């Protein structure tokens, strides 16, 4: 687990989705013996049911005195720290941050105005609200931990008071300093901090893919991304367009398998929660950060908070930035902002926080590009695998044709607008204590989301050809559309074909000239589109926790209501040359004099309606009831279990499609076939002329309803104060919209050890994904489905060694074996089941025993660091190793393993001022995260040229941060 940070931490957690209990007026009975401060803090935190974070340097050589009796948690914390020579930096009723102090230590500052004749000491006014700091002015949001396994952010349980060491779940916590050191270029890259998560972070800032514990890559299934304990979306697609990395994020908490599928929806494989900074009731403060990069980033982040009354506080935060992108398309690749605000009100026994978030952001999506060298990927001449891309100003703003049944005849696509996300989210978070043992919590969020996904997409691998082959009309392998063009314009004197650049009109003809094109001789067919998504969704989590000295029981409910609209109207196939910032080309028919007598393509466009024009509208409701319980025996054995029952109803109206449809005004048609063309262009005669579908103007309704049960049971036994073993079994499921849900089964066991020299967590696991669907379209447009089980055996590790105070090395990762077992073969057309062809059945059955596509067997990170004296910061490096993957389920195209070296420095240049710089992929390595997702079940065409998405090349980011 990535619990890095310099923390001798004792904490409490309330799962990734847990609700912070208001501990302001709660009392506890304490029995903490005199002992070293590092262990005394842990003991106090367990008994108090809170989380305490303290740097190892602050606790080293200090001791706590006896603390016995019944008192308020805040009073006990104040006395404990004072006796140990520590000071409380912040305490919000759930998490306390400590630092070194001097004797005597100033008592814990309380936001209580003494009345006349009343002492200012908090003990004199037990009913008064306590401080609710998240960050002391001039301090960073969260400190870093040294004894990681003593950190008790127990993600994956509602019970308070268990450390990571004593948890029965696979938990990861990444502090703000971990995130700063990682300096993720996208939210997906932040997930690389979590063992067992494979991230394809090569798509830019948004729409990256990630998978968990051996599941096939290429999507975001079985992993639920959350912000402050609630899903961004029930169906985790495009969540990273709303969830960005910013200084308003305080930390990341994650749980893999096990209880993940109990306390959230659609996250049976993993739940990853990004927790934001909250309003501060005690002091005004915040963060201001400036960021630049090797790709011309100009970015400003800010977070500010202040009390506006004794029990009321507000916060504001967000960022604005623009940059050219690591792969520069010739225009701003990313530009836009996030703005957020919150207001919190507390009282003696509870707290209410209201929040709002506005997003208006634009991102360029990086797609697979042509590379060469099967088994040894290299750049193609004229197109860098590490920094190049096909997008360019030549086709950044274009117009495509659509069927009038869509409500329009043309669709504008603006690549400079990019993946344009506009969203507003409004949330609430309420906690209320009833006595010392019962806590009620309720949180919810309503999101309005709109995105226009303006991008290009790679097409079939056969669409990447030598230009001379693409124009071939004779011999054993003529190109069908080229033959059509030559035949169509033969009456006009056509005798050969050539290429014509759309922007300049330059003609390239003849085998020698075509083979010399850009030094590679290639042309490519890609798809450009503006895929639209509109979402209105409400998510909530409400429940009650009853906690006694030896048991914690929670009963709650999850609710989701969502309405969605999607379409790919206007998506069209076009031709370009192959170079960095490609240019469109037309296939033209030439007469004997070299003059153009006709054109196969229209402004580079070969086909309209490539992805199908049928829009879809869906509404669904999910209602879950859950219960979890943790029993503690003898302070060494913890047994916990949970169950969730979900009722899910999904209704969809999918637009019906038809094949080739004549374009009105293109010419004279008889029985749907053109007999007289009004111009000399073939491509503009029909929608879906060479594949795809046009919209029929009608809809077909689909419905899916299910009632499913997920459950888990786990145990942890603390053999010694430093050594524990644990085990867990769980079942779960994943909703698949109108398709049947996918069932999952998990088992895991592990050992954890924690000391000042070594912190280690070793986990063995088994995962079974049942009836997972691999699907691809065949040549006739039918979706062929391989219903398969995926069996995964693996081991995860997270080990940190500190041989001396100024050096540490941390290693984490997963080694796994994942295999496919084909159960049956299905087919569908426009969502309606079909009988698969015999050839498709025979092909799919050959996949049995293969490895799932885009799933590495080895995924390892090693991070050594030199800690600078005087708390100045650190210099760190990172080595990442990704084992080989297969681009397709047939395992025909192997993408070799690769290593990436990165390094950085984090310097505290002055009180409250931090400089952070990192260089990624120092060696400019070429590593491929995916092949061509539209390449079919078998991607290896026998050519040495193919589509694949490489990792980004060498790049650097630097920031200067001011905490005040």
Topology of helices and strands:
Elements: E1 27-32, E2 35-36, H1 37-48, E3 51-53, H2 56-59, E4 63-64, E5 67-72, H3 73-84, E6 86-91, E7 95-100, E8 170-174, H4 176-182, H5 187-190, E9 197-200, E10 209-212, E11 223-227, E12 230-231, E13 249-256, H6 260-263, E14 270-276, E15 285-293, E16 298-309, E17 312-323, E18 334-347, E19 350-363, E20 369-372, E21 397-401, E22 410-414, E23 419-434, E24 438-458, E25 464-466, H7 467-470, H8 480-489, E26 496-501, E27 507-508, H9 511-515, E28 522-547, E29 551-567, E30 572-577, E31 585-590, E32 596-599, E33 605-608, E34 616-633, E35 637-658, E36 661-662, E37 667-670, E38 673-677, E39 686-687, E40 694-720, E41 723-736, E42 739-754, E43 758-777, E44 783-804, E45 807-829, E46 832-834, H10 838-845, E47 858-868, E48 873-882, E49 885-886, E50 894-895, E51 898-910, E52 913-920, E53 928-930, E54 945-950, E55 955-963
Parallel strand pairs: 3-7, 11-14
Antiparallel strand pairs: 1-5, 2-4, 6-7, 8-13, 9-10, 11-12, 13-14, 15-16, 15-55, 16-17, 17-18, 18-19, 19-23, 20-54, 21-22, 23-24, 24-28, 25-28, 26-27, 26-31, 28-29, 28-30, 29-34, 30-33, 31-32, 34-35, 35-40, 36-39, 37-38, 40-41, 41-42, 42-43, 43-44, 44-45, 45-46, 45-47, 47-48, 48-51, 49-50, 51-52, ...
Helix pairs in contact: 1-3
Mean pLDDT: 86
Class computed from helices, strands and strand pairing: mainly beta
Helix content: under 10%
Largest sheet: 22 strands, antiparallel, barrel
In terms of per-residue confidence, which ranges show pLDDT below 50 for 5 or more consecutive residues? 1-25, 102-146, 152-157
């Amino acid at each position: 687990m990535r619990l890095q940070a310099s923390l001798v931490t004792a904490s409490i957690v309330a799962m990734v989705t847990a609700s912070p209990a208001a501990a302001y007026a709660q009392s506890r009975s304490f029995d903490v013996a005199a002992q070293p401060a590092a262990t005394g803090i842990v003991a106090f935190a367990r008994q108090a049911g809170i989380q305490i974070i303290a740097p190892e340097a602050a606790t080293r050589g200090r001791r706590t005195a006896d603390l016995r009796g019944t008192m308020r948690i805040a009073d006990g914390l104040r006395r404990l720290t004072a006796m140990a020579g520590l000071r409380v930096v912040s305490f919000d009723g759930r998490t306390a941050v400590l630092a070194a102090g001097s004797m005597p230590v100033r008592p814990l500052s309380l936001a209580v105005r003494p009345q006349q004749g009343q002492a200012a000491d908090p003990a004199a006014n037990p009913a008064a609200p306590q401080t609710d700091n998240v960050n002391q002015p001039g301090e960073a949001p969260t400190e870093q931990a040294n004894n990681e396994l003593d950190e008790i952010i127990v993600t994956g349980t509602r019970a308070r008071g268990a450390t990571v060491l004593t948890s029965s779940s696979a938990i990861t916590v990444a502090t703000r300093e971990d995130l700063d050191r990682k300096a993720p270029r996208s939210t997906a890259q932040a997930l690389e901090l979590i063992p067992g998560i494979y991230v394809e972070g090569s798509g830019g800032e948004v729409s990256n893919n990630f998978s968990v514990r051996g599941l096939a890559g290429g999507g975001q299934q079985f992993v639920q991304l959350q912000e402050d304990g609630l899903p961004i979306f029930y169906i985790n697609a495009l969540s990273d367009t709303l969830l960005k990395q910013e200084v308003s994020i305080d930390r990341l908490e994650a749980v893999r398998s096990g209880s993940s599928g109990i306390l959230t929806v659609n996250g049976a494989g993993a739940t990853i929660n990004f927790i934001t900074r909250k309003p501060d009731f005690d002091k005004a403060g915040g963060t201001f950060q400036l960021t630049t990069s090797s790709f011309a980033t100009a970015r400003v982040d800010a977070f500010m908070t202040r009390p506006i009354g004794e029990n009321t506080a507000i916060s504001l935060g967000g960022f604005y930035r623009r940059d050219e992108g690591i792969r520069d398309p010739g225009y701003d690749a990313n530009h836009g902002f996030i703005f957020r605000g919150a207001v919190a009100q507390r009282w003696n026994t509870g707290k209410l926080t209201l929040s709002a978030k506005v997003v208006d952001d634009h991102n360029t999506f990086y797609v697979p590009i042509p590379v060469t060298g099967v088994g040894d990927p290299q750049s193609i001449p004229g197109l860098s695998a590490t920094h190049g891309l096909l997008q360019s100003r030549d086709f950044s703003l274009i117009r495509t044709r659509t069927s009038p049944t869509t409500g329009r005849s043309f669709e504008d696509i603006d690549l400079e607008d990019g993946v344009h996300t506009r969203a507003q989210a409004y949330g609430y978070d309420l906690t209320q204590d009833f006595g010392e043992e019962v806590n009620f919590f309720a949180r919810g969020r309503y999101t309005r989301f709109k995105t226009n996904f303006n991008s290009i997409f790679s097409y079939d691998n056969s669409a990447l050809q030598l230009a001379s082959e693409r124009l071939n009309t004779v011999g054993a392998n003529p190109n069908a559309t080229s033959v059509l063009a030559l035949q169509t314009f033969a009456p006009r004197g056509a005798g050969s074909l050539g290429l014509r650049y759309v922007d300049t009109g330059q003609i390239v003809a003849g085998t020698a000239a075509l083979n010399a094109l850009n030094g590679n001789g290639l042309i490519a067919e890609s798809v450009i589109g503006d895929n639209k998504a509109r979402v209105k969704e409400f998510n909530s989590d409400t429940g009650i926790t009853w906690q006694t000295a030896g048991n914690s029981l929670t009963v709650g409910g999850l609710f989701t209501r969502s309405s969605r609209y999607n379409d790919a109207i206007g998506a069209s196939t076009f031709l370009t040359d192959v170079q960095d910032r490609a240019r469109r080309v037309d296939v033209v028919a030439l007469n004997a004099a070299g003059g153009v007598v006709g054109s196969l393509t229209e402004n580079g466009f070969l086909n309209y309606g490539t992805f199908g024009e049928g829009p879809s509208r869906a509404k669904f409701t999910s209602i879950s009831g859950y219960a979890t319980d943790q029993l503690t025996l003898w302070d060494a054995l913890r047994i916990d279990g949970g169950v969730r029952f979900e009722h899910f109803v999904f209704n969809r109206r999918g637009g019906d499609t038809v094949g080739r449809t004549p374009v009105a005004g293109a010419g004279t048609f008889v029985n749907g076939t053109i007999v007289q063309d009004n111009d000399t262009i073939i491509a503009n005669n029909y929608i879906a002329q060479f594949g795809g579908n046009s919209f029929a103007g009608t809809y077909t309704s689909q419905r899916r309803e299910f009632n499913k049960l997920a459950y888990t049971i786990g145990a942890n036994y603390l053999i010694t104060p430093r050594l524990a073993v644990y085990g867990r079994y769980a079942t779960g499921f994943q909703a698949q919209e109108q398709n049947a849900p996918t069932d999952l089964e998990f088992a895991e066991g592990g050992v954890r050890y924690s000391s000042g020299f070594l912190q280690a967590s070793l986990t063995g696991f088994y995962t079974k994904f049942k009836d997972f669907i691999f699907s691809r379209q065949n040549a006739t447009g039918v979706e062929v489905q391989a219903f398969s089980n995926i069996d995964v055996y693996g081991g995860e590790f997270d080990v940190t060694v500190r041989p001396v105070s100024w050096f540490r090395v941390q290693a984490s990762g997963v080694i796994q074996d994942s295999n496919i077992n084909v159960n049956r073969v299905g087919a569908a057309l426009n969502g309606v089941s079909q009988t698969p062809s015999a050839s498709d059945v025979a092909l799919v059955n050959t996949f049995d025993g293969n490895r799932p596509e885009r799933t590495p067997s080895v995924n390892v990170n090693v991070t050594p660091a030199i800690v600078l004296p005087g708390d100045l910061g650190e210099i760190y490096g990172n080595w990442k190793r990704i084992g080989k993957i297969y681009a397709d389920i047939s395992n025909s195209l192997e993408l070799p393993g690769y290593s990436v070296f990165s390094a950085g420095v984090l310097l505290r240049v002055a009180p409250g001022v931090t400089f952070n710089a990192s260089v990624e992929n120092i060696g400019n390595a070429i590593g491929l995260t995916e092949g061509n997702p539209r390449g079919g079940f078998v991607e290896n065409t026998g050519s040495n040229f193919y589509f694949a998405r490489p990792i980004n090349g060498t790049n650097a980011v630097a920031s200067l941060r001011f905490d005040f």
